[in-house]
Specification:
about 35% strand, 7 strands, seven-stranded mixed beta sheet, alpha+beta, about 130 residues
Length: about 130
């Protein structure tokens, strides 16, 4: 398996990259050809589709960047990390967490992203049901 941190850094760099050729190069090393990316707004299958999805992100939100807000925690081919979306004004617009897994070649084959903090536990109306 390739170095986990290098792979995830290349994936993160692809989200920052506005040049399609460079984004493609980064994802060829970091993303499985048939990898799946999901978040509350998207369900993207395949490396080429992810390349286009990131281009659409840059078109919709020009000047917006996504940065890591934690290191990468990983075990048994699974990973997760925190991130922040920074608007053109330098302010955090969204925070989130991505969970993922690696394929047998060490590339990311799945990312499932969540926006914001998890919801609070509901307040029980009765402890006895």
């Amino acid at each position: 398996m390739a170095n986990v941190d290098e792979t995830v850094r290349a994936y993160g760099a692809a989200w920052l990259e506005v040049d399609e050729a460079e984004r493609r190069r980064l994802l060829q090393s970091a993303w499985s050809e048939d990898g799946v990316y999901q978040d509350p707004t998207a369900n993207v299958v395949g490396r080429e589709a992810l390349i286009r999805h990131i281009a659409d992100f840059h078109k919709r939100l020009p000047g917006t960047t996504i940065i890591f807000a934690s290191g990468v925690d990983h075990h048994h081919g699974k990973l997760h990390f925190l991130w922040k979306m920074i608007g053109p004004d330098g302010q955090v617009t969204v925070e989130g967490r991505d969970f993922g897994e690696f394929d047998v070649d060490g590339r990311i084959c799945r990312i499932v992203g969540f926006f914001g903090r998890p919801p609070p536990l509901p307040v029980p109306t009765s402890l006895r049901g």
